[in-house]
User: Fold this.
Amino acid sequence: MKIELKKFGDLLMSRPAGKEAYLAMSAYLLRDLDKNEVIEIDFSGVKVLAPSWADEVLSKLAKEYKNIKLLNTDNASVQACLKTLRDYSDFKY
Assistant:
């Protein structure tokens, strides 16, 4: 399963927007998905990623699914956000 985050916008910033994105993913993309399936999270097209948005989406996905693969994380904003999540939350990818 590949999740293209650009479908949720190129400025992924607020916690409420992240919560809404996660609920949409749960309802439409992840419904009935096996917990061991590989989930590819594609950051291409994302200009800004804020820790609050990412915590609502990535941290929750990481708790539910064991095989998370991050794609196209070259953007400095994405890299900084992922580092923040690794340092201050349970996100370990």
The longest strand covers residues 39-42.
